[in-house]
Amino acid sequence: MPSSAVLPANDLPAALESVLVSEADIKNRLRKLGAEIAALYGDQEITVVAVINGAILFTADLLRHIDNPVRLDCIRVSSYRNETKSTGKPQVLGHLSLDLANRHVLLIDDILDTGKTLSLIVGMIKKLQPASVRTCVLLDKRGRREVEFEADFVGFQIPDKFVVGYGLDYAERYRNLPCIGVLKSHLQNPPEWA
Ligand code: 5GP
Ligand code: MG
User: Fold this and answer.
1) Which CATH number does the domain 23-158 belong to among 3.20.20.70, 3.40.50.2020, 3.30.70.260, 3.40.630.30?
2) pLDDT tier at 3 (50, 70, 90 boundaries)?
3) Atom number, ligand 1, closest to the C-alpha of residue 116
4) Which element (helix H / strand E) includes 62?
5) CB of 163 closer than 6 A to ligand 1?
6) I need a surface site. Which of 30, 62, 89, 182 has the fewest CB within 10 A?
7) Model confidence over 122-175: pLDDT tens digits?
8) What gap in Å lies between CA 161 and CA 184, rounded to an integer?
9) Distance 192 CA to ligand 2 centre (A)
10) What is the pLDDT of residue 188?
């Protein structure tokens, strides 16, 4: 087992080839996104379902800009494992703990890529007969869609690049970066992580 000293620094300039969305961009956009969401729901209660682990940071910060009554649940989906390309077969792991029947559900994920993950979860949620289901993603790689899917709320459109930071990982690392950027290629598949 290697010591943590051999792991690449979680330091922004060291780990990232480029920054696509800065910490300030995220802060500004979340304030507006929160206001858009609050305006659409009026005084209704929202049942938020966050897709973990990726949407943890985004959900935590976004919810602080929504003053509606909110219930929060999480759902875990596996799709990437330790790769930078989707395995193409997302699987829902575990169960929701809240009852969604007749509730206004807002599903939150970090990034919309092929669309397979969110279509799978929306399909599953619809079977539970909610009053409504909407989706919110921080990032959207629109050019990568393999199934037809558009989110109701989008933070940023980004190009087709594998990104990390602000909740998004590579092999569970880099989620704690405050901005979002492209990981340097030599940090993908380093032998010391095997
Ligand atoms: P989809 O099912 O839409 O292809 O993929 C959605 C999931 O794939 C996201 O929730 C995220 O976990 C993962 N994903 C897609 N693109 C990226 C990316 O550029 N970086 C990271 N870290 N994860 C991604
Ligand atoms: Mg995810």
Assistant:
1) 3.40.50.2020
2) very low
3) 2
4) helix 56-63
5) yes
6) 89
7) 999 999 999 999 999 999 999 999 999 999 999 999 999 999 999 999 999 999
8) 11
9) 24
10) 83
